[in-house]
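ok here's Cytochrome C554, seq below lol
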Amino acid sequence: MKSMSVLMVAGLLSVSAWAAGDPALGKSKSATCVACHGAEGKVSVPMYPNLAGQNAMYLEQALQSYKKGERTSGQAQVMRAYVANLSDADIADLAAYYASLKP
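and the structure came out like this:
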């Protein structure tokens, strides 16, 4: 039972790390995202995903995966170029911003 408690605490700590982004900072960093993902994270071209209201943890993991080259299909090469110079804090801020928007 003790090991289960340790795992639960570790899980909660890792989830809180995902929630560390600042939506206001994310908005200020989102200018390059607008071309494909639209203003306010809503696309006008259906081949790109809407980001507004998306889960912050998912967005952060996706951006990290693009940056590391773990995603390779679709527009992955384009995304990798956009995220290559983003810091972990930048990624967290962008994720928090898009998650804060109304879908």
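fwiw The mean pLDDT is 87. kinda neat tbh
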